[in-house]
Amino acid sequence: MSWLFITAGVGDKNFELAADRIASQVSQFNFFDKIKIFTNEDVYKYCSQILDWYSEEQLFKSRGFGGYAWKSRFGKLAMEGEFGNFNGVMYLDAGCEVFHSYFSERKLFSYISKAEKTGVCLFKSATPELAYTKKLVLDRFAAYNLEIDEYQFQTGSWLVSGELGLNLLRLWDQIIWENPDYTNDSISPSGENKNFVDNRPEQGVFSMSVRKLGLDSSDKMPPGDLSTLRSKIKLFLFPFAWARNRTGETLVPRYMVVIGKFSLILRAIIK
Fold first, then answer.
1. CB neighbours of 69 closer than 8 A, spacing ≥ 6?
2. Per-residue model confidence as pLDDT tens digits over 111-120
3. Sign of torsion, CA 98 176 136 142?
4. Which phi and psi (to 5°) does residue 3 adopt?
5. Tens digit of pLDDT for each residue in 63-111?
6. What CATH number has the domain bearing residue 231?
7. 3-state per-residue secondary structure call for 225-258
8. Partner residues linked to 124 by β-bridges
9. d(CA 229, CA 227)
10. Distance, CA of 51 to CA of 32 (rounded, Å)
């Protein structure tokens, strides 16, 4: 099957540099038939409605260049064939870090295989739904028992394939663009849940869309902050980390890069 990898250098120059970095890191896997980086110009081109919600000056000052509303549109268009015909699409935020080793390569292959088999490979975050999704968004969907199934599905990393994956991205995009208040910092008309902390703009809509379609997360959370030894060790077994590195310079230590390359050389010798 053919796969497209997408990321977005949307916002200021640092995000562009981060997107270039992650695209270069991903290319080392040789799993993707095409890698596409979205830019501010793509937001204007494919999400022109956002200029009805924000002035251009406000866009640059707003969180996520307009509440990250563009994320769903880029994903939907990618799965619909706007950028070529592919069986699946993988997205990573430009702030992620990608690590290439024998073990991370196997893990990424398992993610792709999972998405090809089931339609999605999704990940849950450590943010509770009731604390990080606006009540306005929660009310848009049918009721769910969020006290039991409490954590949000994350939008910084996902893989989708086939009709089910396309349906998820279409639902996400449909609801995102219904109302600018879903992704801005305004207070819900009926107030917020007592446990509310902050709005994760596009993530709340995505997470509830996943629930509406009866989907579930497919794997354990990747590592996060790479300043800790625990996360560095964990990264040896994962293809990416939620590192929030919004620069063009990698946070992966040189010694880890060397060990990763050695593991790949050793695999080739053993084969």
1. 47, 50, 53, 176, 177, 180, 183, 201, 202
2. 999 999 999 9
3. negative
4. -130, 145
5. 999 999 999 999 999 999 999 999 999 999 999 999 999 999 999 999 9
6. 3.90.550.10
7. CCCCHHHHHHHCCCCEECCCCCCCCCCCCHHHHH
8. 153
9. 7
10. 33
**Number of domains observed in the structure of the chain:** 1
Q: State which residues form the domain around 35.
A: 3-270
Amino acid identity of residue 7, one-letter, is T
| CB 165 within 8 Å of CB 203 | no
Whole-number Å distance between alpha carbons of 238 and 229:
15
Task: Specify burial of residue 100 (Cβ count, 10 A radius: 0-12, 13-18, 19+).
Answer: buried
Angle at the Cα of 125 (from 263 to 46), degrees rounded to 5?
95
What whole-number distance in Å separates Cα of residue 206 and Cα of residue 221?
Answer: 17
